[in-house]
Amino acid sequence: MSHSKFSRRSMLGGIAATLSVPSIIEAQEPISPAVEGPAIPERNTSFFQRRYWRDYFSNLRLGCILCDISGRAVHFWTSDETYRLYPSSVPMTDELTRRGRTHIARMKLNPSWTPTEHMRKEDPTLPTFMPPGPENPLGTHALYLTWPAYLIHGTHDTRKIGRQSSSGCIGLYNQHIKQLYDLTKIGTQVLIL
Q1: 13, 79, 89, 93: most buried, per Cβ within 10 A?
Q2: Cα–Cα distance between 129 and 120 in angstroms, integer?
Q3: What is the pLDDT of residues 65-82, one digit of tens each?
Q4: In 3-state terms, what secondary structure has residue 151?
Q5: In DSSP terms, which residues pair with 164 in a beta bridge?
Q6: What residues are labeled active site?
């Protein structure tokens, strides 16, 4: 009799597990970025999971940007719910990471770069100023947040994407930041988590 109950329980547990597997796979299945660009190494897409704007924002009035530090990805929604997903570089340490809500305060094509005092203290070989160009770490486009010295920007060093490699900013491939720049407006909501 007890053998029969054990078999029924096992069978019912097996059926329940089998029925739940497709939804688990669907929820955890990595997705590819919805943009064209360079071939993205597998390590850069391993954490990609589709996100939904309503989980993080109350409206899409000027669009929304979600920077997912642990997933190393930037999610973007326009006011008509167009969705984009981009692999990103993230800050090297938690001390360099600022989290919370902000918005796009300024946008710049071909930005110049001025390292912060902290960066120059850490690396005295850094220049005091760098004009736009292939050596500039801000790449071809920059989206400035309301927090001083925090940006979402491009990078010419594509090895940084998908890694903890920045001094606090969120970096994208240049072709991806161009797409995001073209879709974004001053005032676009940003959440870094």
Answers
A1: 89
A2: 11
A3: 999 999 999 999 999 989
A4: strand
A5: 90
A6: 153, 169
